[in-house]
Amino acid sequence: MARAGQVGGTATAARPTLPSPSSRAGTPLTAPAPQEAREGAAAARKVAVVTGAGSGIGRAVALALIAANWTVVLAGRRAAALEETARQVGYAGIGGPAVLPVPTDITRPDEVETLFATVRDRFGRLDLLFNNAGTFGPPAPLDELSYEDWRSVVDVNLNGAFLCAQAAFRAMKAQEPQGGRIINNGSVSAHTPRPHSIAYTATKHAMTGLTKSLSLDGRPYRIACGQIDIGNAATEMTGRMQTGILQANGRTEVEPVMDAADVARTVVHMAALPLEANVQFATVMATNMPYIGRG
Ligand SMILES: NC(=O)c1ccc[n+]([C@@H]2O[C@H](COP(=O)([O-])OP(=O)(O)OC[C@H]3O[C@@H](n4cnc5c(N)ncnc54)[C@H](OP(=O)(O)O)[C@@H]3O)[C@@H](O)[C@H]2O)c1
């Protein structure tokens, strides 16, 4: 995946800040209300962590959750991109949506620990993890893929997703009332590969294993886990689908894409279910993309 270009966004800088529980998480909430009012209002809402919230699907889901009255903690490596997501929430006044950017590299255990400690210290509980951050890696014929490139995809898509899921699981198991939901972002590549995508395909298949194990191990603790498998939402990652991408038959073709907001609406639906109900797997894809029949 070509990393998304950094988006601007310093609009939140003038807004009041809360004291930071960590050196990495001092950025402001968006609603410029008195601290007690903000924290009181935030406590009444459910709390979500969205990884990869500075672009694409993560940003769309963060905005949709906020519109559905969730408090949302935004994670990703680029602080400016997270700030831009927070800026897009706008001012909602006292009792309005609360959003907190926490710059985090999910491949680093210490930073993941800080992220979830920040959620606990600031909001007291965690109701949802949207385990979304991911990378496609450089497309390359299998025999030409470097071990370094293989490892960097595994590190984000599998190791990072595990670290976030484990931290969320621990928080949800420990809190009162117990429980919560983890939604993993898989892919149609969790089912069927594209050419030259072995690291992405292998890690997205592994995501299905994470989802199933989390579902099983979460049962005693009211922790639900589901997976959304997306096909061709228009984001930085799918730029090549819109300009022409290698097909299984050797041709390069432009593929249909869909709006990331349509994915976000599905995630919000999954998130809103009571913990007694779970969308275990959902596939949301551009209707006419060459998936059915490509394998
Ligand atoms: N778009 C699609 O059609 C599609 C299809 C199937 C699956 N997906 C999945 O959807 C997810 C989001 O992809 P997207 O399409 O929205 O592409 P994107 O805009 O490139 O988003 C990827 C996000 O992951 C974050 N990220 C990457 N490495 C990270 C790290 N080490 N630590 C923290 N965050 C990291 C990036 O933020 P920073 O660079 O700021 O860290 C970025 O916000 C991915 O898991 C992808 O596999 C997308």
UniProtKB/TrEMBL annotation:
Claim: Metal-binding is one of the keywords in the record: no
Cross-referenced CDD domains: SDR_c (cd05233)
Domain Ketoreductase, residue spans: 46-231
Keywords: Oxidoreductase
Superkingdom of the organism of origin: Bacteria
Entries under InterPro entries matching the protein: KR_dom, NAD(P)-bd_dom_sf, Sc_DH/Rdtase_CS, SDR_fam
Transmembrane segments: none
One Pfam entry name: adh_short
Region of interest (Disordered), residue spans: 1-38
SMART domains: PKS_KR
Keyword presence, Oxidoreductase: yes
PANTHER family linked: 5-KETO-D-GLUCONATE 5-REDUCTASE (PTHR43669), BLR5618 PROTEIN (PTHR43669:SF12)
Family named by the database record: Belongs to the short-chain dehydrogenases/reductases (SDR) family.
Protein's name in the database: Oxidoreductase
